[in-house]
Specification:
Layout (H helix, E strand, L loop, with lengths): L1 H27 L10 H30 L7 H31 L11 H6 L19
Length: 142
């Protein structure tokens, strides 16, 4: 019964951390075109999300070893699906933090597609503001 209660809490907390990481990237990449980004706040949110994701991943792995290590139970499928779900959210949190939030903090170009990609320009307009120039128009036809 402890497993039934605890795995839902780990799943919800990891999902909350994923949402905070995603919303932080979207917010700081959108609303600071004219003003400098608040680097200390971004660092605090990023560090909090990173530490929280590591702790929840460790807790999920601990559950897996404690339940799967006792022999065959009816929970094996649930535990493996739970670990895969937590692992996927862990990877997504770290992608958002290291490949989007950190470059925005340091005023670097975004590593995934850079600011040339329409996806990055639409989602993070202020982060791509000075890092992209449209190609010159083609010469007129004679």
């Amino acid at each position: 019964a402890k497993w039934e209660v605890t795995f839902k809490g780990v799943l919800i907390k990891t999902l909350q951390t994923l949402v905070v990481a995603l919303i932080s990237c979207l917010y700081f990449g959108t609303y600071f075109a004219q003003a400098p980004v608040p680097v200390p706040l971004m660092a605090l949110l990023g560090a909090t999300c990173f530490v929280q994701s590591i702790l929840k991943m460790l807790e999920a792995v601990q559950f897996a070893f404690s339940i799967l290590g006792v022999g065959h139970t009816h929970r094996h499928n649930k535990v493996s699906e739970f670990i895969v779900g937590i692992g996927l959210m862990f990877v997504l949190i770290n992608v958002f933090l290291w490949l989007y939030l950190l470059p925005m903090m340091k005023d670097w170009d975004l590593p995934l597609g850079q600011c040339k990609a329409m996806f990055n320009r639409e989602l993070f307009p202020s982060a791509c503001q000075d890092k992209w120039e449209p190609p010159p128009p083609p010469p007129p036809l004679k």
